[in-house]
Amino acid sequence: MSDDRVRAHVHVTGRVQGVYYRASTRDAARARDVDGWVKNLDDGRVEAVFEGPEDAVEEMVEWCHTGSEAADVEDVAVEYEGPEQESGFRVRW
Known about the structure:
93 residues, alpha+beta, Alpha-Beta Plaits, five-stranded mixed sheet, 24% helix, EC 3.6.1.7, hydrolase, acylphosphatase activity, Acylphosphatase-like_dom
């Protein structure tokens, strides 16, 4: 089963801090059974890793373009990497 897992490493730019973006990302990822993490960066961006079945990971990448209701997303940069066997989804500090 681990052979069909993919990993997307994303950086989200815009008004994405202080607008429940991380918590909303966590909830959306858990609803799709996607593993990984999300955190704020010092430069105002949000960084996240999504790992799981390709269709679910792609749904999360697409979700990032809108994000939480209060967010104003300007850009989503995505790099695909080899799976690292993330387990669960959490907000990092």
